[in-house]
Amino acid sequence: MSTPDGIFISFEGGEGSGKSTQIRLLEQWFRHRGRDVVVTREPGGSPGAEEIRALLLTGDPGRWDAVTEALLMFASRRDHVERTIRPALAQGQVVLCDRFADSSVAYQGYGHGLGAHFIRQLWKLAIDDFKPDLTLMMDLPLETGLERAGARFANVSAAEDRFEKMELAFHRRLQQGFREITAAEPHRCRVIDANGDIETVAARISATVEQFLTSQPA
Ligand code: TYD
């Protein structure tokens, strides 16, 4: 039997959009179809990138300036791409990634004001514009997302809460960023309405993925 083509799918969205639950459900969906799946995340996803994650997500909110933060994101991303993502795709696996470079455009570019152009240059330099085949943009009204996220932080926030401390205006810029990214690349980026119960959102995602798969050349 020939090896299937690898598929790289990223999930994006603001806090509390339900990405991790939905990634696990999509993992099952692919496994039921006989595919090997790697679930990974950013920042992180390879041993070196996980070390950089710890530098990024712990400590004082002002620990890094925006440019340093963006460089660390891309340093971790390059390691992740080279050590985890590309090898998995070469073996015909499905890679499901919780956030990828669009998060740097949204968070560091729009959120922290470095601008999308600056981040896109880093994207080109660090990983030669390597992109997901499909990006699922989990879309939720800001207030709903932050409410959900707030409930979660009460239980598990632990030490990794540096990013959660940032203000509402920041989250508005993020949302704007994700919308503009989607508008610029409508074929790769599909908006998923993340409002609704888990099964409803999962059905929206599998329908979108199914449609993407059938639109691919055989
Ligand atoms: P995480 O706990 O994984 O959050 P989430 O569940 O929201 O994905 O922490 C990742 C944080 O890092 C999140 O607040 C978004 C931020 N981030 C960036 O600022 N830039 C990036 O390029 C990436 C990948 C993440």
Short description:
The protein is an alpha/beta fold and 218 residues long.
Could you explain the architecture of this structure?
The chain has eight helices and five strands, in the order βαβααβααβααβα. With 218 residues, the chain is an alpha/beta fold. It has one domain (7-214): Rossmann fold, CATH 3.40.50.300. The chain has a five-stranded parallel β-sheet, with helices on both faces. α2 (47-57) runs antiparallel to α3, α4 runs antiparallel to α5 (116-127) and α4 crosses α7. It is globular and about 50 Å long. The mean pLDDT is 92.
Strand order of the largest sheet: 2-3-1-4-5
Q: What do the pLDDT scores average to?
A: 92
What amount of the residues lies in strands? 5-15%
User: What can be said about the biggest beta sheet?
Assistant: 5 strands, parallel
Give helix % range: 55-70%
Q: Would you tell me the structural class of the helices and strands?
A: alpha/beta
Could you say what the CATH architecture is?
A: 3-Layer(aba) Sandwich
Supply database-style keywords.
single chain, 218 residues, alpha/beta, Rossmann fold, five-stranded parallel sheet, 5 strands, globular, binds thymidine-5'-diphosphate, nucleotide biosynthesis
Architecture blueprint of SSEs:
Elements: E1 7-13, H1 19-32, E2 37-41, H2 47-57, H3 66-90, E3 94-98, H4 101-111, H5 116-127, E4 134-139, H6 142-156, H7 168-184, E5 189-193, H8 198-215
Parallel strand pairs: 1-3, 1-4, 2-3, 4-5
Helix pairs in contact: 1-8, 2-3, 3-5, 4-5, 4-7
The protein binds thymidine-5'-diphosphate.
The site of thymidine-5'-diphosphate has 14 residues, from helix 4.
Binding site for ATP: 13-20
Organism: Thalassospira mesophila
InterPro entries: P-loop_NTPase, Thymidylate_kin-like_dom, Thymidylate_kin_CS, Thymidylate_kinase
